[in-house]
């Protein structure tokens, strides 16, 4: 039934139910092969079919908050034939993409933007005098994010009607925390009772939204009926529809293990996860150092901190998807002499940029940012790559930025971080594949991994140091001597080592955007001349989805390219 | 009575009232001379005296949200003798500063951080097993900010008792907008009625906070009584105390003109404000171009847009102090073909960093950011300087960054921006003092203001171009020829002009941090060698308060320093 764009409106209830089964199977099959978001998409099948049945996409507009729950939407909007390329390099994205289909009106990836975007789109509609419906679908996890509240707060001010659907599955990636979540639960519990008597005002009505709930989002016919009714009401007001769905619906293993099956990875290569090292090391350190507190924003397991949270609940804080708030809480803790470790994905730390600048760094507080999924993170694409953190952090005064060359150096950095009395960022990728030989670790100092007089390769992070060492080896075969330097502190630069470099040719290599990163700092260091510098880093563009390996190669950072450059230029 | 730290607890009611008068006079006198925040501080006198009477600072901790209302607090904590240096270079800051006094436990400047910080401090207290009270004082304007909601949402999760005082004066800088504000008004209106009968649950109780209100924050004895009672209750729960204060209290002109007297500038020099040009130009453009929408986050008058808002209310959106939300609304508007102009102070745009990256730039949407108070902004200090925007914007793919050399070029950029089909940032300072000679304006292209063969000075913005032209003149007297280039687009660089430069010596000058700014982009452009480059920009530190002129000079960017460098190096 999924050829082209299925004509739902002409289908019988039986056919629609059969379609849901087909969608569910297609999602399970594809995600098992390609990786992707499983449980959340299984929960959304009926709701999405009902939305497509009742509304007229792409004339009507729908924004999926975060966006990873859009698979059924993609399958119903003419992308079923390409669905086997999901999350593959050059294939369709796991998130809504305007570039991909006119059915995707707004790209998402980070939590909480859907209501603001819906208000903007609806306001544009009203300014232009057009007539269509605008819908935001948002999970209860995103509901913690302050952006949603900011949007609610301006619903009456902007005064353009929208439909907000809360998809309440009691989970973000970890189970949802916070009072808003408890409130949603309370509403669900009261639902039946409320239906009978005069309802009290919900929190949403305080914001000028008409509240309708709670309904079973996995009951297709109920959803169709309810949405049909709401569609009419949208002419005159903004509505919030509260539905409960079952994460992992229709696939028993997922229903029972929603946290483990939120995101599925395709294939497995033997690796040590940096997050595991963070968890082990921090848990051990916290045993003797009572100042250590771990803070997360809704990703505790993926950040490796589940065990820490179990062992030290009184020194563990998960604030939900509120990256800015988490940063300020850390600053507050640090003013009182505690030692907070804020673990966060690189891309989500962007959400706390101002708080890192003002609250942490301008107060020069000893907060340690443990930045996971830094550099290219792979198959989630543009909105999840971590290629900007070296750039947006290095511009901030007072911060020290460390990039371990392997998991062992990461462990060492963590151990030494307890005595470091200022803002510290340690950035690392998901997987560690290699342990390099260690020289002694000297906090703030770079390390020369091999010595050669013609070219100095300054590289940071496991991925780049691996490539650099291989390129140096190839160059050596051509009698060109390369030093490979582990720039394990990107800020401040190790100027003692930099000033001692006698090589005329300098190469920088980093798993980060070119602008503002390590290369750019080195360029500025040598701006008064005398060196020939070549920067290997990501160009000035957003990086799409694909495997880490494919993407690094796409941007020309390979052993071959680096060694070719060296061989062609070293004797220039 | 203000010598040293006055012993409030030993004072009679009469003496306390006299103290309030003395404080009020001191504040008025000082702000009239030095500039500063007047109305908000006049409103806070009694509440602050009551807080100091009831609580034990610095053992107890108080965080002032945004912080500009802390003058009485400073006067009561041993800084009265230095109060005449308020906001002056080297003097005391207009905001709380840990570096200044142990009575200031947390630095603020940007809205909405106080509750998160209070929770962090209280959590630290509980982890350490200490016993003191933690208080956040927050205005109703800040209450719109999502960070406050994120903090509320985790009050029960973090489970450390704090007191939150809402100082409700119905104003942020503009009158407060949004549903939360209306809700606070409703609570005030219902206050008397509610006292009599069983109270309904407030929105705050939904977050696990015990609500007490509404009380007159300018009634000293009432405040002392209420705070004494609350201090006891804090042993067992978190409390939100809702007080109403009168902005400008005790100074008739301020009471009647709270918006105009929110911030007072010291002295006046003849200038044209860039914001006035923004307002005039945009209003004119909007007459014929129906796509133009103006968006602000609570600063409409200071951004020059009051007239636009009056003339085109249906195309004007002020979302309150919600910079992230404003950015996403703009992205939504742009997806529907409208042309949003988001006017915002440089320092506050930091709050929307992630939304500029993900929502605006990764979707490559034609949103124009009009960035006011860019570069050094002066007497508000660290938290209000705009020295980072070139750095945190230039790292973002797809964005174009323009820096007008004067108000006329700014006007020209605005006019041409309507046909520019991508994310555009235009950054400018508050005041324009000079109009330079114009060549024809070519979008994206730099402009050579004078020609000389020895040194090329690449400068951006009025302040730097003024200095550059003067330095070039001095160098000319020593027979050194300088080209001065107006780098009116910092991104992308005008590589055509850069590659045509024959001078061996390059100087860059910018009103921005060195790291990641114009200089750093030019350094990277020439990284392969052949040039001797010197970057004039701000060093890697937070810039304190002082006048623009004093601060620029402090960081060595002066005609003398630049011309000295040229004279010593041009023939090297």
SSE topology sketch:
The structure is a homodimer of 572-residue chains.
Chain A lengths: L12 H22 L1 E2 L1 H5 L1 H10 L6 E4 L6 H6 L37 H15 L5 E6 L6 H8 L1 H4 L4 E6 L10 H18 L13 E7 L3 H14 L5 E6 L7 H5 L6 E2 L7 E2 H15 L3 E5 L9 H6 L4 E3 L4 H13 L3 E7 H4 L3 H9 L6 E5 L16 H6 L5 E3 L4 H11 L6 E4 L3 E2 L14 E4 L4 E5 L2 H16 L4 E5 L2 E3 L3 H6 L4 E9 L4 H8 L6 E7 L9 H7 L4 H11 L3
Parallel strand pairs in A: 2-3, 3-4, 4-6, 5-6, 9-10, 9-11, 11-12, 12-14, 13-14, 17-18, 17-20, 20-21
Antiparallel strand pairs in A: 1-7, 8-15, 13-19, 16-18
Helix pairs in contact in A: 3-9, 5-6, 11-17, 13-15, 18-22
Description:
2 copies of one chain form a homodimer. With 572 residues, chain A is of the alpha/beta class. The first copy, chain A, has 3 domains: 18-258, Rossmann fold; 272-432, Thiamin diphosphate (ThDP)-binding fold, Pyr/PP domains (Rossmann fold), CATH 3.40.50; 447-569, Rossmann fold, CATH 3.40.50. The first copy, chain A, has a 7-stranded mixed β-sheet with strand order 10-9-11-12-14-13-19, with helices on both faces. Chain A has a 5-stranded parallel β-sheet with strand order 2-3-4-6-5, with helices on both faces. A 5-stranded mixed β-sheet of chain A has the order 16-18-17-20-21, sandwiched between helices. In chain A, helix 3 (45-54) crosses helix 9, helix 5 packs parallel to helix 6 (146-153) and helix 18 (462-477) crosses helix 22. Mean pLDDT of chain A is 92; it is low at 195-199. At the A-B interface, helix 5, helix 6, helix 7, helix 8 and helix 13 of A face helix 5, helix 6, helix 7, helix 8 and helix 13 of B.
């Amino acid at each position: 039934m999924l050829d082209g764009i299925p004509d739902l409106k002409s289908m019988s209830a039986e056919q629609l139910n059969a379609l849901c089964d087909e969608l569910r199977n297609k999602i399970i099959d594809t995600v098992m092969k390609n990786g992707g978001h499983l449980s959340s998409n299984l929960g959304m099948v009926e709701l999405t079919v009902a939305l497509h049945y009742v509304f007229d996409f792409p004339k009507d507009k729908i924004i999926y908050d975060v966006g990873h729950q859009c698979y059924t939407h993609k399958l119903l909007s003419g992308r079923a034939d390409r669905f086997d390329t999901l999350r593959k390099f050059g294939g369709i994205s796991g998130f809504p993409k305007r570039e991909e289909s006119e059915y995707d009106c707004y790209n998402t990836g980070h939590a909480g933007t859907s209501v603001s975007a819906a208000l903007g789109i609806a306001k544009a509609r009203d300014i232009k005098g057009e007539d269509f419906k605008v819908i935001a679908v948002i999970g209860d996890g995103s509901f913690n994010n302050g952006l949603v509240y900011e949007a609610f707060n301006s619903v009456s001010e902007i005064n353009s009607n929208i439909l907000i659907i809360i998809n309440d599955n009691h989970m973000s990636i970890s189970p949802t925390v916070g009072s808003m979540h408890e409130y949603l639960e309370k509403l669900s519990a009261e639902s039946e009772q409320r239906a009978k008597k005069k309802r009290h005002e919900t929190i949403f009505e305080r914001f000028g939204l008409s509240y309708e709930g709670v309904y079973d989002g996995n009951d297709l016919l109920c959803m169709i009926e309810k949405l049909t009714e709401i569609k009419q009401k949208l002419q005159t007001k903004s509505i919030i529809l509260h539905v409960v769905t079952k994460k992992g619906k229709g696939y028993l293993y997922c229903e029972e293990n929603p946290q483990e099956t939120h995101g599925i990875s395709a294939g497995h290569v033997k690796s040590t996860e940096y997050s595991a090292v963070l968890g082990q090391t921090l848990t051990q350190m916290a045993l003797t150092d009572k100042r250590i507190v771990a803070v997360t924003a809704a990703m505790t397991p993926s950040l490796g901190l589940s065990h820490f949270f179990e062992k030290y609940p009184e020194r563990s804080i998960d604030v939900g998807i509120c990256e800015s708030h988490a940063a300020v809480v850390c600053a507050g803790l640090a003013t009182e002499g505690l030692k907070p470790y804020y673990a966060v994905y690189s891309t989500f730390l962007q959400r706390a940029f101002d708080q890192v600048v003002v609250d942490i760094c301008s107060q020069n507080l000893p907060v340690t940012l443990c930045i996971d999924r830094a550099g290219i993170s792979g198959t989630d694409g543009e909105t999840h790559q971590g290629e900007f953190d070296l750039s947006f952090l290095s511009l901030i005064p007072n911060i020290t930025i460390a990039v371990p060359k392997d998991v062992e150096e990461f462990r060492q950095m963590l151990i030494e971080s307890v005595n470091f009395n200022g803002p510290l960022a340690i950035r690392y990728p998901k997987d560690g594949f290699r342990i390099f030989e260690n020289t002694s670790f000297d906090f703030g100092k770079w390390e020369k991994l091999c010595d050669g007089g013609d070219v100095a390769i300054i590289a940071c992070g496991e991925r780049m140091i691996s490539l650099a060492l291989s390129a140096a080896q190839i160059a050596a075969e051509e009698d060109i001597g390369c030093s490979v330097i582990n720039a394990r502190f990107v800020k401040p630069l190790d100027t003692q080592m930099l000033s001692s470099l006698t090589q005329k040719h300098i190469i920088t290599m980093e798993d980060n955007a070119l602008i503002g990163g390590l290369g750019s700092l080195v360029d500025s260091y040598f701006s008064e001349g005398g060196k020939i510098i070549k920067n290997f880093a990501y160009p000035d563009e957003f990086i799409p989805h694909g495997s880490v390996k494919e993407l690094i190669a796409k941007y020309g950072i390979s052993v071959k390219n680096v060694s070719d450059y060296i061989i062609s230029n070293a004797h220039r």
